[in-house]
Amino acid sequence: MEVIGQGAEAVVSKKGAEVLKERLAKDYRLPILDNKLRKARTRREAKIINKLEELNFPSPRLREVCDKRMLIAMDFLEGPKVRDVLDDNVKICEEIGRKIALLHQHNIIHGDLTTSNMILKDEVHFLDFGLSFISNKVEDKAVDLHLLRQALESKHFKVYDTAFENVLRGYNDYENSEEVIQRLNLVEQRGRNKKKS
Ligand SMILES: Nc1ncnc2c1ncn2[C@@H]1O[C@H](COP(=O)(O)OP(=O)(O)O)[C@@H](O)[C@H]1O
Ligand SMILES: [Mg+2]
C-alpha cells in the first residue's frame, strides 16, 4: 500500500488498482462533532460518486464505503493531476467548463473545484466529492465557479486569463450559464468590497 495523498481531511492510499480514502480523526474537533462530520462527508462522497456513475460522468467508480471506518474505496485513475499539465495545455479548460456545466445541469455542486481534484486520463476526471451537495441555487453554482477561478488564479497565474475564459466558454453548455455568470460577478464584487472595508 502506497500513500498517494495526504490532505487536510484524509489519507489516500493506493492498493493495486484500488484507492482507499480514509478520513482520520481530528483532535482539534470535539470527538462527537468530528465523528458526525467525517461520517457525513464519507457518505456524501459515496452517494455523489454513485450518482455520477449513473450519469456516466468521468470520475472514479465506487467500490466500497464504510462509514464506521470512515473509508471509501474506489478505482485508481492512472494519469497526471490536471494541476501538473494545465499550464502547457490551457485548452483543457474548455473541457473542464463543459464538465462543470454537466454537473450543474444535474444540480450537483462540487464544492472544491481545484486542479488537484482533477486527473487527466483520456479525458478530465473529477475527484474529491467530500464537500459536494445537491442544489439548484444559482448562488451555489456561482460560488462553485468562483472557487475554481481562485484556484486558477493562484496555481496557474501564468495562463490564468485564458484559462478562465476557456472554462466559461465550456460552461456555456449549461442552459442557465448566463444567470450563473452574472451571479459570479456579484459574488466577486462582494468579495472585493469585503476586502476594502
Ligand atoms: N481515484 C483516484 N485515482 C487516482 N488518484 C487519486 C484518486 N483519488 C485521490 N487521488 C489522489 O489523491 C489526492 C488526494 O485525494 P482527494 O480525494 O483529493 O483528497 P483530499 O480531500 O485529501 O484532497 C488527489 O489529489 C489525487 O492526486
Ligand atoms: Mg483533494
What can you tell me about this protein's structure?
- The chain is α+β, with helices and mostly antiparallel strands and about 200 residues long.
- The protein folds into 2 domains: about 70 residues, Phosphorylase Kinase, domain 1 (2-Layer Sandwich), CATH 3.30.200; about 120 residues, Transferase(Phosphotransferase), domain 1 (Orthogonal Bundle).
- The chain is built from 6 helices and 9 strands, in the order βββαββααββββααα.
- The protein has a 5-stranded antiparallel β-sheet, with helices on one face.
- Strand 1 and strand 2 form a beta hairpin.
- Helix 4 runs antiparallel to helix 5.
- It is globular and about 40 Å long.
- The mean pLDDT is about 95.
- Magnesium ion binds next to loops.
* Total domains: 2
Major sheet summary line: 5 strands, antiparallel
Query: CATH class of the largest domain, please?
Result: Mainly Alpha
* Helix and strand pattern: EEEHEEHHEEEEHHH
**Content-based structural category:** alpha+beta
What is the CATH H-level superfamily of the largest domain? Transferase(Phosphotransferase) domain 1
Give the DSSP E fraction (strand runs of 2 or more residues).
15-25%
CATH architectural type of the largest domain: Orthogonal Bundle
| C-alpha geometry | globular
Bound molecules: adenosine-5'-diphosphate, magnesium ion
Count of individual beta strands: 9
Nearest-integer average pLDDT: 96
Order of strands in the sheet with most strands: 1-2-3-5-4
Remind me, CATH topology of the largest domain? Transferase(Phosphotransferase), domain 1
Spans of at least 5 consecutive residues whose pLDDT stays below 50 are none
- Name the helicity range: 40-55%
Number of helices: 6
Distance between the termini: 50 Å
Radius of gyration using CA atoms only:
17 Å
